[in-house]
Design goal:
The chain is of the alpha/beta class. The chain contains 20 helices and 14 strands. The mean pLDDT is about 95. InterPro entries: ATPase_dom, P-loop_NTPase.
């Protein structure tokens, strides 16, 4: 079954505009492993790519240059064979000569460098060669140079923020994100997989919106069947994907995995000091780099704690697959097929679903804003968390939307089988949370409760005047 390009309208438009422009263009494409970067470029530029090379993981400079030599032969078969380049500068000399020799002047050509962080080996001077290629040749030609990489932090530091020859040379930027729920539904539908929203939500909570993962789902499967086969069977793609995921992106990935493992064990997330205590990593620049790299690559997210300016940032694991893997796949490595059919009925899984659904909601704030009809209002998302003690009760509010129209939406998120009735116990809990919040931050804005329940919520006499908006997961499937 051929994969169909869906859900990438803005990115497609950016690529086509670069192709149609009358100037040389350099495009950076950043996105985590398996998110579909290479497929996007091939789908849009298939007929225009004159040369492409993808870096080899764990290869040294000599091996990367041998790979370059082979790709040059494939791209330009009519040009006599070239010797192995002495270095990257020599490699780019050979490339420019081949491109000039085959230029018919009829159309704009694309030169595609994939997995650039792997090409740029330590002391390999690939970036020096790339800088020469752009500044001395490409900038005066009718070309599009695409630079692609999965290591987001590396791409930002070495390409986008470069202070040398590549400084301000990137003309267009693409940050390829995982599919949201609407894109996921469209992608699967294009593959003739029609699932209702509950089934799609269960899949999304386990593997996120990564196209390469979603491609494994087969028509006719339920969410439980797909998760069981893909994540627990001996040949399942996601059974051991975790072990390759982080080393492919980060040097010294053991530290990154240590942070991910720590965050997988908390529903509230950790602030920096808590992470230091749990991971036993030293405070300093190295920890900052690890956290930045995980954030830039989309594995963790930072949420401010309302009312706390100092130490008010909380880190949370927001990569669905990593969370699901550490909670269920890894502890059941040898369970084999059928494992999830049993795990899916356990209290542990149902409890985890609450956390996973909350994460999904946090990733779909634009959809929530549209449902509240505040899409045009500036909103600062945050969370609230106060540890209780003898003097003050504790409280946690899943999400706050601090609006510049004088309102703060307090959002309660529930994953529940069937519609959630907003009974007296629930409303009493919300009222207590609001009182703790009001006392702690002395907010002057209007406070308004919003409830998001997976299967919707049902008002009751107790909720009148307390909960002003209640939604089902339907709102999360809307386009941005």
């Amino acid at each position: 079954m051929n994969t169909i390009l869906t859900g990438r309208e803005n990115e497609i438009s950016t690529l086509k505009k670069a192709l149609a422009s009358t100037e040389a263009e350099m495009i950076s494409v950043i996105g985590r492993r398996r998110v579909g970067k290479t497929f996007l470029i091939h789908s849009v530029y298939e007929k225009e790519i004159a040369f492409e090379i993808s870096g080899l993981q764990y290869a040294n400079r000599t091996d990367q240059l041998r790979n370059f030599q082979q790709q040059l032969r494939i791209a330009f078969p009519t040009i006599p064979g070239r010797s192995l380049p002495k270095d990257w500068l020599d490699a780019f000399f050979q490339l420019t000569e081949a491109l000039d020799a085959t230029d018919d002047g009829k159309k704009k050509r694309v030169i595609f460098f994939d997995e650039v962080p792997w090409l740029a080996t330590h002391r390999g001077k690939f970036l020096m060669g790339l800088s020469y290629f752009w500044n001395s040749w490409a900038v005066r030609r009718n070309v599009v140079v695409v630079i692609c990489g999965s290591a987001a932090s590396w791409m930002i530091k070495k390409i986008l923020r470069d202070k040398g020859g590549l400084h301000n040379r990137v003309t267009r930027r693409i940050r390829l994100q995982p599919f949201n729920l609407a894109n996921t539904r469209a992608y699967l539908k294009a593959r003739h997989i029609n699932l209702n929203q509950r089934q799609l939500l269960l899949l999304y909570m386990a593997m996120g919106g990564i196209p390469h993962y979603l491609k494994e789902i087969e028509p006719g499967e339920s969410a439980a069947q797909a998760i069981d086969r893909i994540c627990f069977s001996e040949d399942g793609l996601l059974r051991d994907e975790f072990s390759a995921l982080y080393p492919a992106l980060f040097d010294q990935s053991e530290s990154h995995v240590k942070v991910i493992r720590a965050l997988s064990k908390t529903q509230q997330g950790y602030d920096r000091q808590q992470l230091i205590e749990v991971t036993r990593m030293a405070d300093g620049g190295y920890l900052s780099r690890v956290l930045e790299e995980l954030t830039e690559s989309g594995f963790i997210s930072i949420y401010p704690i309302y009312g706390k300016k100092k130490k008010g940032l909380r880190y949370r694991l927001t990569d669905q697959y990593s969370s699901f893997y550490l909670r269920f796949i890894e502890p059941n490595t040898y369970g084999g097929s059928g494992s999830f059919m049993a795990l899916g009925q356990t209290p542990a899984y149902k409890s985890w679903c609450g956390y996973a659904f909350e994460t999904v909601c946090l990733q779909h704030i634009p959809q929530l804003k549209n449902a509240l009809k505040i899409g045009g209002i500036f909103v600062q998302p945050s969370t609230f968390y106060q540890v209780g003690n003898k003097e003050n009760p504790g409280a946690q509010i899943d999400l706050l939307l601090d609006r510049n129209d004088g309102v703060i939406n307090l959002v309660e998120i529930k994953f529940h089988d069937g519609p959630l009735r907003l009974n007296k116990a629930i409303i009493t809990g919300l009222t207590k949370k609001q009182l703790v919040f009001q006392t702690a931050v002395k907010a002057r804005k209007q406070l308004s409760w919003v409830v998001i329940a997976a299967d919707g919520a049902v008002a009751s006499p107790d909720s009148l005047g307390i909960v002003n908006h209640y939604f089902s997961s339907d709102i999360l499937f809307q386009e941005d």
